[in-house]
Automatic annotation (TrEMBL):
GO biological process, one term: regulation of ubiquitin-dependent protein catabolic process
Database matches in SMART domains: UBA
SUPFAM superfamilies cross-referenced by the UniProt entry: UBA-like (SSF46934)
Organism listed in the record: Aristolochia fimbriata
Residue span(s) of domain UBA: 220-260, 292-332, 341-391
Signal sequence extent: none
Domain of life: Eukaryota
Pfam family for this entry, one: UBA_7
UniProt cross-references to CDD domains, sorted A to Z: UBA
InterPro entries recorded: NUB1, UBA, UBA-like_sf
Name of the protein in its database record: UBA domain-containing protein
Length: 412
């Protein structure tokens, strides 16, 4: 501001409400910055293969149900960040924080804009993000956004028609499988009707709102059918969704719910498999460019006879380049150096584990020399503990509670 350390400052008290507003705005900006930073961090972790499956699992399908392979790393990061930010924005909308939601939606739109347009066309979240943005305009009741609302709704309709066809004949469940697409078109047409009305296009507004009303009625569920499904043990939300997706046919709804349960079990199995793969990748470390070892390429090298740990280290050193890794593995001198490095790492891990175990036993009163002897004579910490206790080499009796806690920890 141009003030120097010897300047005199005249301060006057302003409105308390104005000061509070300034503080609220500063806090809001910090919160938005944290959301963006979290999305960026999670995207980088997932790209590196270190993000737990339960945190984020990116699986995209086209309208025929086939999995879609994303293009470049930039596309993958852009899509992941866009999806995360869109998810955060929807949570803010549910919490009625519409202004904050608009800012986060803008961040999501920016993230999607980094991706190849052909990739974006396959993702329903992009047009839905436009609808959510206009929904916030609508709920904030700010007519100044009216012209922009029309542009966004046109983009949303164009995006949905590219994905589902102009007649919506290829309607499937949305990517996350939570809402029928019919509800998306209902919300789109409702907003189109409102925008057309405020733009003076009354006939266009009437058509849009009439179509939205028809879709709304189509989404209603018969009480008798709902009660019947709930009597079978299904939750209300799942039962309603199944009836909507099967045009109120109870028999088809039951088949749909059974199929959904099977799909959920399959997804859970795939998640466990992916979690196992991520844990395995962590074991091999990161490449110089901070990427995880490619397990598919690792399995290819193992299938032709190379030891897994050796092949993993070769891939790690060569940024997952299979040919360069193969050259290192078939070169006697390089192969020997990699093996020495692996053995050294293994010894270091064993030494650290032994030192940690020694300190753990010493903390409850055992003597160091006896602890070292017991651990060297045992294969597990539990065997070492049994050996120490049976030899009655424990020092002061006041450490009995610590010993019990140690025993429970080892057993668990």
């Amino acid at each position: 501001m141009g003030l120097k350390n010897n300047a005199k400052i005249l301060a006057s008290r302003v409105s308390v409400d104005q000061g509070k507003a300034i503080q609220d705005e500063a806090e809001r900006n910090k919160r938005l910055a944290r959301i963006r930073a979290a999305a960026v961090a999670m995207t980088k972790r997932h790209a590196a293969g270190t993000l737990p499956v339960e945190d984020f699992n990116l699986e995209l399908e086209d309208q025929s149900g086939k999995k879609v392979q994303l293009g470049s790393e930039t596309d993958q990061r852009g899509v992941m960040m866009g999806l995360m930010l869109h998810g955060n924005a929807k949570q803010l909308i549910r919490n009625q924080q519409y202004k904050d939601a608009l800012d986060v939606l803008a961040m999501g739109e920016e993230a999607f804009s980094l991706c190849d347009p052909e990739v974006i066309e396959m993702i329903d979240n992009v047009p839905i993000l436009q609808i959510d943005t206009v929904w916030c305009y609508f709920l904030l009741r700010d007519i100044s956004w009216l012209s922009m609302a029309g542009v966004r709704l046109a983009k949303a309709r164009d995006g949905l028609e590219r994905s589902h066809g102009k007649d919506s004949a290829r309607v499937r469940l949305l990517q996350a499988g939570r809402h029928p697409e019919l509800a998306i078109y209902l919300r789109l047409e409702l907003l189109e009707g409102v925008v057309a009305y405020h733009s003076g296009l009354f006939e266009q507004s009437r058509k849009a709102l009439t179509s939205a009303q028809a879709k709304y009625l189509q989404l209603q569920v018969l009480d008798e059918a709902l009660s019947l499904l709930m009597s079978m043990g299904y939750k209300e939300r799942a039962a309603k969704r199944a009836l909507r997706m099967t045009n109120q046919n109870v028999e088809s709804a039951v088949a749909f719910l059974v199929e959904e349960k099977e799909r959920e079990a399959q997804r859970h199995e795939e998640d466990l498999k992916q979690r196992k793969e991520i844990m395995e990748q962590k074991k091999y470390g990161m490449t110089p460019m901070k990427k995880a070892v490619n397990l598919q390429r690792l399995n290819e090298l193992v299938s032709i006879g190379f030891e897994k740990s050796l092949a993993a280290e070769a891939l790690r050193r060569n940024e997952n380049d299979t040919q360069k890794a193969l050259d290192d593995l078939t070169n006697t001198e390089t192969n020997s150096k990699i093996q020495v490095y692996i053995d050294s790492k293994k010894r270091n891990r064993q030494r650290k584990a032994l030192d940690a175990a020694i300190e753990e036993f010493i903390s409850v009163g055992f003597e160091r020399s006896q602890v070292v002897t017991a651990l060297q004579a045992s294969e597990t910490k539990e065997e070492a503990l049994n050996l120490l206790v049976s030899n009655q080499v424990m020092n002061p009796p006041q450490n009995v509670m610590q010993l019990l806690r140690l025993t429970l920890t080892i057993l668990v």
